[in-house]
Every structure is written in C-alpha cells, then in structure tokens.
Design brief:
Layout (H helix, E strand, L loop, with lengths): L4 E10 L9 E10 L2 E7 L2 E8 L4 H11 L9 E7 L15 E6 L14 E3 L11 H4 L14 E2 H4 L2 H7 L2 H6 L3 E7 L5 E7 L2 H14 L8 E5 L5 H9 L4 E4 L5 H10 L2 E7 L2 E6 L4 E2 L3
Parallel strand pairs: 3-6, 4-7, 8-15, 11-12, 12-13
Antiparallel strand pairs: 1-2, 3-4, 5-6, 9-10, 9-11, 13-14
Helix pairs in contact: 1-6, 1-7, 6-7, 7-8
Length: 287
Amino acid sequence: MGRITARRPVTRVTIGGGESGTDAARRRPDALAVEEPLEIRVRGTSLAVTMRTPGHDVELAAGFLVSEGVISRGDQFRSAIHCGGPGTGPGSDGNTYNVLDVSLAPDVPPLDPDLARNFYTTSSCGLCGKASIDAVRTVSSYDIALDEAVVPAAVLAGFPDELRRQQDVFDKTGGLHAAALFDAATGEPLVVREDVGRHNAVDKVVGWAVLNDRLPLSGTVLQVSGRASFELVQKAVMAGIPILAAVSAPSSLAVELAEDSGLTLVGFLRGASMNIYTHPDRILLAG
C-alpha cells in the first residue's frame, strides 16, 4: 500500500483470554491508515491545507476546487504537479509529495482574495476556517432540482454493502471513510475512494469526474460510509449529484440545504430500511 498504510507495533490485550481467566497481552504489528497534510496551490498561490490519506491527490484537489466554486467543468482543470514540500533541500529526503500546484484554464478568473485565504481542514471537519454559514452556501452551476434521476429502494439498499466490499484499505486498517458514485439507472458503481476524511473521500470522487470530464454528475447517487454533514451535501450539490445516501444520520443543516437545493437526502441506510429526509420522489418503492 506504500504511503497509504503504515505498520506499527501494538500491545493486544484480551481480557480473560489467558490461563485460568487471566488477562492476556501480546505484542503484534498493526496496520494504520496514513494521515499527512496536503497543501493545495492554484497557480502558485496557496489555497488550502487538508489532512488526507495520500493517493489520488490530483482528484482531491480537483474535487475541492469544484466544491469551492473555483471550477465547474473538466476542461477548466489543466494539470497538477507535486512540488517539494517541507524538508526538501540539502540533506533532506527530497519531494514529500505533500504540496500540489494546480494549473487552470486561462478563462478561469483569478482566485477571489477572500477565497484564497489559508483554509485549514482536519480529517473530521472540511469547513474549518469558514467565517460563517453564509460563506459556505456556494452557488452551484447546476440545478439538481431539475434532475429526473430515480432509483428503486431495493437497489439503493445494496449500495452500502457494495461500497464496503470495495474498501481495500479499510480491510487492512479499519480507519478510513469511503465514498462511492453509482449510476442511478443501472445501479453500477462508477468509482470508489477512501480517505481518513469523509470530505476528502467525496472530493476524490468528484475529482475523478473532473478528470474524466463528467460534470455535472446527473443521474447518479453518492453513497458515503458515515454521516451526512452540511459539507457533504454542499459538495454533492456543487457537482450536480441529485441523490446522497449515508449509512448514518444527517445533520439539521444538511437536511435544510438538501431541501433548498432539490437534493434527495437519505440517511440510516442499513439493510432493508432507510430514512428519506428530502425529495422522496426519486426513491421508487415496489408496488
């Protein structure tokens, strides 16, 4: 797995697992999900620092730029190159691959000075540093309220299991979130990405669409492995995704934004049950 996982020794304790019911302890190696900072630059200007699992960094940057309203089409994203990060120079190990500089098409206007401030996001929050809720209500280029996508409830119910089956790094570490994009008409998975941050996993999915010139993501379902927060709803809306499903609960603000934006939001999607919080007409019920 390279830089995606790391091996560390741990002490494994089993209560009552020893002779005569005593507690047992043994040393063993354990696989951990790697978490490192990634600085995203646009045309040489620092835009954001996010804590992520290395891998698919270009997709992460592209998806982040869609979420922030910097770009909305695949042809606006030209290229990206890893620059030397902290620790480079004489006596260092060289490129840390933790700085990514993005080149955009000439028609993309320069970054707004208010946007080009230094964000700092952690693996638990993708909106840290935002001044207010009003600042994150980015206007999407796509009106998902007009999207006529529908998906049978029985098909939707199978998406969490399919997502879990494709979580290769989670199988080794147990420590990653995941996001997957499904075709609503066929139920086929289009892309799956993992990361220590749920918002990063979604950005990588959206970034995949950018690099493959597939925006807007009409007729698709975004399935996430955790809860549905405001930021994930915003990312779905900005990418033109009409349906977002989560295995856990949504927040009140996520539901409010989904309702206002025309997005179908599903929570507690587990087994044969689910809660549809907004725009239930896109979920087809048998009979």
